[in-house]
Amino acid sequence: MKAIETYQEQFLAFLETYKEEREPKNLYEPIAYILNLGGKRLRPVLTLMTADCFDGDTNQALDAALAVEVFHNFSLIHDDIMDAAPLRRGHQTVHEKWDLNTGILSGDAMLIMAYQLFENYQPETFQKLAKLFSKTALEVCEGQQYDIDFEMRSDVSIPEYLKMIEYKTAVLVGAAMKMGAIIANASTEDQNRCYEFGKNLGIAFQLQDDYLDAFGNPETFGKQVGGDIIENKKTYLYLKALEFSSEEEQRQLKQLFSTGGTNSKDKIETVKQIFIASGSSEATKKAIEHYTLKAFSVLELLTISEAKKELLKTFGTSLMDRTV
């Protein structure tokens, strides 16, 4: 097994070969821009790592890894439009740098480009990958719709929220790992275990993202800190704060989450204090740990060496402890 940085380097080198100047520029330049913004490359790295875990050729897994990354970035362009987000990874979002129509169309093109990358596989592998990808892509859209619906509801439950982040974020992490296992011809049982590991890791990852949105360092986080609070998003932090608070505190929190973005700094600070005082911030950290450990428990069942399990565990731990 290679070091995690080696998979990142291998993927980034392959990504460079994928970028080429194409016409019309206003369609393809935003695509190159979002793919160049960096990010953690969590999903493609997991595809390569998983293929390697089952003694597959990581070079063979590069097209699938890139398909997952292209799709992920397509979803970010459209998410940013829906959220009216000004920043992505510390830079202007695509719709801010260009315009709304460009963001929509470039995103659409990325979805098609992601599918095209699976065409480089043999028919049987292509069918398995495309089937998994279609299911996952539809679930991501369902998760996004749940997220939008929750903005208009005051009765969102924690199980509903966890289902939303499972679909919107976690299933793509699970699929990225399962694709690596498919390409390496792992057993069906191991393919499904890889999916479960990735899915639970994805839930922990999103909960950590929610936590960092409120309590992260703006210089390292790469997004507007407090963005979820400004947008009145009913995150795990918010729902747990409601659960733990008195009726008076609940009323205050609901009132704060019914207002627009005026006095944003005051609103962010007040809400953060409620998150801390109620015990919500601590409960969120415990939930992150719970799903990380749930992912690790699946590792024990994989038919791979202890050294390979340890590498996957190290990767999971680094996500739980991240600040970006």
Report on this structure.
α4 packs antiparallel against α6 (100-117), α4 (62-83) packs parallel to α7 and α9 (188-215) runs antiparallel to α15 (280-299). The chain has a two-stranded antiparallel ribbon with strand order 1-2. β1 (87-88) and β2 form a beta hairpin. 75% of the residues lie in helices and 1% in strands. The protein has 16 helices and two strands. The chain has a single domain (4-320), classed as Orthogonal Bundle (Farnesyl Diphosphate Synthase), CATH 1.10.600. The chain is mainly alpha-helical and 324 residues long. It is globular, with a radius of gyration of 20 Å. The longest helix is centred in the middle third of the chain and has 29 residues, at 123-151. The protein has helices at 4-18, 25-36, 42-53, 62-83, 94-97, 100-117, 123-151, 158-183, 188-215, 218-221, 227-230, 236-244, 247-256, 264-278, 280-299, 306-320; strands spanning 87-88, 91-92.
Short summary:
This protein is mostly helical and 324 residues long.
Looking at CATH, the homologous superfamily is Farnesyl Diphosphate Synthase
Low-confidence stretches: none
Radius of gyration, in angstroms, nearest whole number: 20 Å
Strands ordered across the widest β-sheet: 1-2
- What order do the helices and strands follow? HHHHEEHHHHHHHHHHHH
Which tags fit this structure?
single chain, 324 residues, Farnesyl Diphosphate Synthase, 2 strands, 1% strand, globular
